[in-house]
Automatic annotation (TrEMBL):
Cofactor detail note: Binds 1 zinc ion.
Entries under SUPFAM superfamilies matching the protein: Cytidine deaminase-like, Dihydrofolate reductase-like
Binding site for NADP(+): A156, W172, T198, D202
Name of the protein: Riboflavin biosynthesis protein RibD
Domain CMP/dCMP-type deaminase: 3-125
EC number(s) from the headed UniProt entry: 3.5.4.26, 1.1.1.193
Keyword Ribonucleoprotein: no
Entry binding sites for substrate: S170, R186, L206, R209, E295
Amino acid sequence: MTETDRRYMRLALSLAARGLGNVWPNPAVGCVIVNHGRIVGRGWTQPGGRPHAERRALDRAGEAARGGTAYVTLEPCAHYGKTPPCAEALIAAGIARVVTAHTDPDPRVAGRGHAMLREAGIAVETGVMEAEARAAQAGFLSRIERGRPWLALKLATSFDGRIALANGESQWITSAAARGMVHALRAEFDAVLAGGGTARADDPLLTVRSFTPLRQPVRVIVSRGLDLPRERLAGSLGTAPLWLAHGASAGTEARDWWQARGAELIALPETEAGLDPEALLHALGDRGLTRVFCEGGGQLAATLMRAGLVDELIGFTAGVVLGGDARAALGPLGLSHLTDAPRFSLSETRTIGGDVLHRWRRD
């Protein structure tokens, strides 16, 4: 691996990030084509997953791709779907060398793309910036390897970890800049997840509103009995999809009402503590979601944490103190020993509008 390879792969990774939230169930991939030290083509996966990054880069490069090197953040696909395999497209374009970050674990690919390229006489190198690429593609990898999407839990809290006063007042703990950043984060995820308690208390839209995204995230609300406020959520179905996860106790009237207005219902098994959180995430994975952004509330967040399903914490912490009588960000976890507490490692920290943004990944 040369520094030149790393530089172009770094650019390909930055291009891939443009697809986050827009390309599910496909991975967000970036591609850079270089010939004689000059970038002749760039591309990233387009909304809805087509065209693929390689196809976009090749179209832009044209004949200049012949004899060049393609830097791709994931092994080129080798199977026929809605479009021919990208490995075939690279071969047909006369690419001489392909550099990838890592192998695609999708069983339809899983090394076949690399093999097709090598059989065509193309030099293939892989493993360039693999750790960075795997971190960026964590959602896609989670769905393929674990059958469920990557789950990030967002908490906007006071310095002492509170989300509202005892009387419920919570607007606003964090700054306008931090709230704008939350909208930007929503746009990078396939779906926004909230519990029925949050829906009843706040009646949130859960859409991206500080700008117009390429694709609104799916809104997923977990409510055992579907006892939800109806006007705003149903009235916004033309803006963003709405999936409602419920249990057997949901009444026929509520189910029929939501389905008639275009919401997708997801029936889940119930446990003594409520709806099965692992079944929820696997149901979302079955529907193609790769990255889910959970915005609460405290009981849903605690349920997901107890089940070991939270992969990332995204915190916005404000310099305000609310005290022990204010509402905690998380419900009870039932821990008896500190060694049982979920542990996360810090991956990013910076200031946003006077608040602190900090991101943590599960150890």
